[in-house]
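Fold it.
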Amino acid sequence: MDRQTLEWDDSAYSLMIQCKRAQKQLSLRYHEAKNASSPSGAGQWLVDNFYILSREERETRTALKANPKGVARLAVLFFGELRRHPLGEQELRDLILMEDSRSRLTVEQLEQVALSLKVAYLLLAADAFGEEEREEWISRAVLGLQQLGGVDFAALEELGAVEETLWEDPAGIYPRMTVESRRQYRRTVAWIAKLQREKEETVARWAVNQARAGGVERTRHVGYPLRHQVQMEEARRRRGRLLLWGKGLLPLALSLAGGWWAKTGGLSRLYTFPCGRRAAPFCSALPWPASRRITSPGWSSHQGKPPGAPWW
């Protein structure tokens, strides 16, 4: 099947299904080639490297269980190019820049370049055993999976518009930060953009403009408005949780607890106290479950006071 004609949705579950089908197809062809007296060139590649494909497929499905967003878009792009020629690091860079210029790639999509490329290699290996066996595809997939460790994926993550915008930090601190610190800044921009339903590039540009308006060096760093915005968003979410508990969940919990207590006769224990006995006629008139009358031992609200009862 030509996967270039498939309609992919941007979900990790669809990729998991595709990887599982690819592994089943590779497993079937592996046993056929292993039992053949003279396997083809593609079959020999599969017999010699099946353990690599199986290991990578398991790791890929485990990574996809975390449900990362945006893997399918780049996986389809890489898969289409791998059918035509191998992809080195420079080719990957050119592809990502071309796709980003067509439609902006998100921070999360750029962080999933390695996973997207691995998915593309696995699907290419399975497609090598279609109606016509293609030795160059299976060899390209195996060699590509083996060489993934030599690709600088951290540099590929920084090809998006968010990174380009944050480099305009008025304080000049962002370009001198470590790779992991810059990654955390990009993730903060993506988090704020998701909460405010804005484009990530818009949030990054807002942070740079706010930093330019800062009066001292500390406030001129692009991280200052980002940190302030995160604190505001967290405070707003805390207030929302308090309102949810105070106006919704807490009254509901008290109502359920009161209903359960009334049904089990727990309110009758109140009548051992003076205030409970004075409220007994009113409570007995309420429509309790199964029309149960609530009384204290040896006394009914419809019989008046028992003999020798105190004045209250």
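The first helix runs from residue 12 to 35.
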